[in-house]
Design brief:
- The protein is α/β, with parallel strands linked by helices.
- It has seven helices and seven strands, in the order H-H-H-E-H-E-H-E-E-H-E-H-E-E.
- Helix content is 34%, strand content 23%.
- The chain has a seven-stranded mixed sheet, with helices on both faces.
- The longest helix has 18 residues.
- It is globular and about 45 Å long.
Length: 211
């Protein structure tokens, strides 16, 4: 994979975003390069933008978290956004929820190799997790907002938040989700950009707040 596509050089801002966790972030990037194609985590065409589009794009969302939050990363796949966020915020606990066995096994391996004491991996579908509640749920490239909220809101405690990494159609997705507000006890939606200080293209996040 790395022989066909040129890998992205680590951006200078990576050290500022990850701080003391920069070595963990570098090891994670290396492991993604080695294993992503084999496990269907990321295609080889993503390698030239691995840091900016995937790792840093995910990590900056951690600025929306508060110390002590419990976060469920739904459909974690390659550990995005959960692992970069967990490296950036060791004061927050993350549960990576991934239904595919080989991917969840890979995530467990990463947690162990990277020494991420604030991360656990749960092999399950989001709708199968009924025995715990979280203060925050994150999701990246899982589904459109209406379907995503049906999957994720049941994981939240009262007053919790869904942080969904989205693109240019974020407002359209919010409009489509308006009909779910009463049923799912949604207090409102916000669109924010994270990583403004560091990234040329900040990460757009739709925040769904519960009552």
């Amino acid at each position: 994979m790395s022989e066909t596509y040129e890998l992205e050089v680590e951006p200078a801002v990576a050290a500022a975003i990850f701080g003391a966790g920069i070595d963990q972030a570098r090891d994670y990037a290396t492991n993604l390069v080695l294993d992503a194609d084999l496990l269907g985590l990321l295609g080889p065409r993503e390698m030239p933008k691995l840091w900016t589009r995937h790792i840093l794009n995910s990590a900056v969302v951690a600025e929306l978290l508060e110390a002590g939050d419990t976060v469920a990363d739904v459909g974690s796949g390659a550990g995005l956004p959960g692992i970069p966020m967990a490296i950036a915020r060791p004061d927050v606990h993350f549960t990576l929820i991934e239904p595919m066995e080989r991917r969840s096994d890979w995530l467990k391996q990463q947690v162990e190799e990277l020494g991420l004491n604030n991360v656990t991996v749960l092999r399950a579908r989001a709708e199968e997790v009924t025995d715990r509640k979280f203060s925050v749920v994150t999701a990246r490239a899982v589904s459109a907002l209406p379907k995503l909220l049906r999957l994720t809101v049941p994981l939240l405690r009262a007053g919790g938040r869904v942080l969904a990494l989205k693109g240019s159609k974020a407002q359209d997705e919010i409009n489509d989700a308006q009909t779910l507000m009463k049923k799912l006890k949604i207090a409102g939606f916000d669109i924010v950009h994270t990583g403004v200080k560091h990234l040329a293209e900040p990460t757009l996040v739709v925040i769904t707040r519960l009552n």
